[in-house]
Every structure is written in C-alpha cells, then in structure tokens.
Automatic annotation (TrEMBL):
One Pfam family hit: Peptidase_M24
InterPro entries tied to this protein: Creatinase/aminopeptidase-like, Pept_M24, X-Pro_dipept-like
Gene Ontology biological process: proteolysis
Necessary cofactors: Mn(2+)
Residues in Peptidase M24 domain copies: 6-205
Molecular functions (GO terms): aminopeptidase activity; metal ion binding
Alphabetical keyword list: Aminopeptidase, Hydrolase, Manganese, Metal-binding, Protease
Name of this chain's protein: Putative Xaa-Pro aminopeptidase 3
Domain of life: Eukaryota
The gene coding this protein: XPNPEP3
SUPFAM superfamilies to which the protein is assigned, alphabetical: Creatinase/aminopeptidase (SSF55920)
Length: 228
C-alpha cells in the first residue's frame, strides 16, 4: 500500500487491492495485499501473518459469539492487534499491551464524554478514554473493523453497529495495519507498509457463511498465487 505522499510503486512494495463486484443488485467488498516482486520481505511477512492471525480470531468470534455486535468485534480487533504487533516487535518493549488497548471504561453519557475527552471511542455501551500510548493502535488502524454490506458497499450507514446482527445481515470483517513512514514509534523496517484483509460474512439461521473464504489470504498462498 502506498500513502498519499508516495512517489509511486517501487520494486519492494506491497499493493493493497480493495475491490468487489455487483451481482443482481447486491455488492461485495474484498481486500487482499500482494507483494510486487512476488515475495514478501521479512517485515512485510511478519505484518501479513500477524494480520491474518487477527482475521482468523475475528472470524471465529463471528461464528461463535451470539448475540454478535460489530462494535464488540471492533474491540476484539484492537486487543488482538495490540497483542500481535507487540509480539512481532513493531513497537518498543517499553509499551505494554494494556497501554495499546482502550482503557478507563465508563458508563457515563456518550455526548458528555466526547465533549470532555475528544479522544474517545464509543462502542455502543461504554465510552473508552485512551491513554497517550493507547493511540498507537489507532494510528496503525484508524478505521472500524466492519461495515454493513448489501445494495451499497457501505450499506445502511444510519444503522448503528452496537445492535445484534440478525440472520440475513451481511457485513465485512477488515482489520488493517498501516505504518506510516513518519511513525517514529514503530521500528524502521516496518515503516511505510500498509495492509488490510477484508472478508464478507453472511449471518444465517445456523451460523455464518464467510463468502470470501476461498480467496487466498495467507502470505504463503498469496506468494504461490503470484507465481501462477
């Protein structure tokens, strides 16, 4: 993935492809990352594998947790991403996992907390105020982990993410890692790399159908695909 201040695609880069199709009035939305030279560098592979592990954890939650709420899926992503990024050494050891996740949960009203603490997150039930170091994860993945999917790519934007997801609803699961070149908190070899994995999920009466499950996403499978 290249950021806006980049000078084009270079030999050692990875390219993020976010695409989909329209069939009979319904849309899809899928994201994968491909190394330009056919193989990931060690840093790229570490990020890709860490992100794939997060995606696998999130898809297990989607399959097992009921009632499922997209707001709670986001919090699960933050925790899993924080843990994995520390394990691969993206951040210095002086930062703990607890400092990377959102802290100081409160049940006070959303509006009053946002006015008092602009740097907050609302998950539908609680407001989370972040420590300075907790913002590191938000800088790495500044977007939500999911959006509804249907007749539009970002369907029913007016429907909140803190309500139970019912059978018949389709949504995305899309954790991302974006390390800007000017991110001095990250180790140098990781800077300038951006990745996202996005799958489409349909909730059924008996569970879920991950409709993009046959699309390669593991680093080794992506590299094999690049050789074809």
């Amino acid at each position: 993935m290249k950021f806006r201040d980049s000078n084009g695609i270079e030999e050692g880069d990875v390219v993020l492809v976010d695409s989909g199709c329209d069939l009979h009035g319904y849309v899809s939305d899928i994201t994968r990352v491909f190394p330009i030279r056919g193989q990931f560098s060690s840093a790229q592979r570490a990020l890709c594998d860490a992100l794939n592990d997060v995606q696998s954890q999130l898809l297990r939650i989607v399959e097992e947790v009921r009632p499922l709420r997209l707001s709670e899926l986001y919090l699960a992503m933050v925790e899993a991403l924080s843990k994995n990024l520390l394990e691969i050494g993206l951040f210095p050891k002086t930062i703990t996992e607890q400092e990377l996740v959102h802290v100081q949960a409160t049940t006070k009203s959303y509006v009053s907390q946002i006015l008092k603490f602009p740097n907050t997150l609302f998950d539908g039930k609680h407001v989370f105020r972040k420590t300075d170091k907790a913002q590191a994860t938000d800088t790495i993945c500044p977007h939500h982990v999911s959006h509804y999917l249907g007749m539009d790519v970002h369907d029913t934007a007016s429907i909140p993410r803190n309500i139970p997801v019912l059978p018949g609803v389709t949504f995305t699961v899309e954790p991302g890692i974006y390390v800007r070149k000017d991110n001095r908190l990250a180790r140098e070899e990781f800077r300038g790399i951006g990745m996202r994995i996005e799958d489409d999920v349909l909730v059924t009466e008996n569970g879920v159908d991950v409709m993009t499950r046959h699309c390669a996403r593991e680093s080794t499978d992506i590299e094999h695909l690049m050789k074809l």
